[in-house]
Amino acid sequence: MKPRSEKSDISLIEKVELHQHVDGSIPLDVTWKLMKKHGLHPVKTKKEMEKHLVLQEGEEGALLKYLDKFHYPLWITQFYDNIAYAVESIVTEAYKNNVRLLELRYAPIIHTYSGLTLRQTISAVLSGINKAKNRFPMEIGLIVIAMRHQGPHIAKILARQAISEAQSLHERTGVIGFDIAGAERGNPARLFGQAYDIARTGGLYLTIHAGEDEGPQSIWEAIDVLGASRIGHGCSAIEDKALLKRLAKDKIMIECCYTSNYQTGAVKLGEPHPILKFLEYGIPVSICTDNTTVSNTSQNKENAKLLQWLTPAELSTIHKEAEAYAFIHQNGGPRSAQLVERKRASKKEGIEK
Ligand SMILES: [Zn+2]
Fold this sequence. Notes:
By secondary structure, the chain is α/β, with parallel strands linked by helices. It has helices at residues 4-12, 28-37, 46-53, 63-67, 73-76, 80-96, 118-135, 152-164, 193-201, 216-225, 241-249, 258-264, 275-281, 299-305, 312-322, 333-349; strands at 15-21, 99-106, 139-147, 175-181, 205-210, 230-233, 253-256, 285-287.
């Protein structure tokens, strides 16, 4: 047990959150309140509902069990006002954890079942962010996600929709980045090249969920074929020294999600988290929650768990340095460099552009 002072030091650290999903982070109270309001509660009590929304003891280590928790929130987040309200409450929780820069991410397509258009679902999130920004002194941006299992064509459509709300085109909060998430196996990153080209040329920055459920090759494709400047999870990079060196050399950030990685089985229980190896190699890292509700976590909790290996001062430095990799802050430089790299890689290997 660590002394209390270190825990309180953690809450004082100004934090940078670069990998947090809207769907998995809606506070339990908010989901329950909206379900009750609309008569959409499948169980009688909030306590019972919690079991469906938060990963339970004994459910760790299996990605499918983890993903199952995303099912019920979708009952209520098909409606504009509900989405905006949910997002505002997520930001409120982040602010309570002293998060000062927040990049939320969101898969618009799974919010269109009641008839909202893709663009309306994006604009609902932005509306929630704007409301929160009026209340809290925070920088907040949105990353749009395409789901890998829905295939490359849907990803292209999403990239275009994301551009329509790009921050670079508007004098207000907008979309800053593009991501693919979901089942890595069987849906290789190299097939999503055109979607990433659309996003890049539309002024979006690029991250990819990779190396969570697949080996290092998935991360190589993410950086060499798609030109991602950040990697979500990236756990399997520790199996490949050349990749670790490359990530360090090109300063490609890994968005580390400690609790989530053990829960999904990306890192086996009892094994050290790869963030330590990444730091050893000089790879930029950020400390992220992934899904605060599903993982029953928060920025304060994630940082407190890392106190086993890192001091509050070291954790604070990680957050300060992560700011430089925030998509909210970047200009055009890194994108064009990545594009050149990708063209070179695809020529060499004869893979899809
Ligand atoms: Zn994620």
